[in-house]
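ESCALATION

Customer reports they have been waiting on this structure for their group meeting. Please prioritize. Original submission:
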Amino acid sequence: MVTTIFSSYELLSDFTANEWINVIKENPTATICVASGDSPKLACELFCEKVKEQQIDISNFFFVGLDEWVGLSPETFGSCHNDFQKRLIQPLGLTASQYHMFDAQATDLQTECSNMDAVIKNRGGIHLMIG
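Update from on-call: job pushed to the front of the queue and completed.
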């Protein structure tokens, strides 16, 4: 494992966005898992910009949301689902078949976690995790 220390959040975010692009270029069907929240916010923004600028084909890439707040509806401001809709799904024009997120309103959370595990397994695992 290589540890890299960045002198700024901006440099870290740019590096992360470039790694994301590189993974998709190497494997167009890659499954990328991203945490919500402020930590990856700039990386997501830069990734979207770079995809458009470099005309990267993302039609086969698959996005998995890492987390969610139990009990919140997808429309709730502050929910991970809402965050990803604004940061990735809408800006990139991803279709429903290109992503999977937790159902925070599921009545059986163990089954919901098992469903996520199955989606990831069926996709061949996670190729890049961004936290």
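Sent to customer with the following note: The chain has a mean pLDDT of 93.
Escalation resolved.
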